[in-house]
Amino acid sequence: MSAVWLKLISILCLSGTALSGPVSSGVVWRDLGGSITIQCRPPGTDQEYLSLKKGLSEELEVFYRDGASKKNNVADEFVDRLQIHGVFPNMDILIKNLTSDDTGPYWCLYKKFDPTTHQRVNSVGNGSVLLVVRDKLQQCDDQSGDQLILVSLVICSAVLFGIIIVFLIWIVRKTKTYTTKKPRRVPNNEVYEDMRGTIRR
User: What does the pLDDT read at residue 186?
Assistant: First the structure.
């Protein structure tokens, strides 16, 4: 069960990171064995290279395209599962037969030469997504996790309601015993003398 929670937490963290950029397309859920099309669009003109990278730190280069030579480079684990459509720089990248290892953020990165700095500048293009691949077992685990959360919420609500009731009963009893007590008379040792008869008019 802890593995399910760990997966959920990592997916939430990844979705927060992937969705934080202005060019992201959001979270995409796919079933095991399904496919996804990532539509990479350039952030500007005169782009020279396109690179589809995977991971928070863009550690795996899934696909690389040189715009001038039209040469493609595909990572080994995606060779039989990746198809390219479109004309550079607007490329649609199809990944088929998805596995659970394919879960993660995918970034469309473009490079172009900047004449002012005389260097190649990287920029993130439109179409970057966070892919979540789920299998049937994981869906069952997620449903049981949802039921566990629901049961936990019901139990916590019942305990909180019980504490509030006990507290209210305690306050009512304290208030009732305070109001029913008779005020204690303080003994008065003073002597009262009627002085009306001694006053002369």
Answer: 60
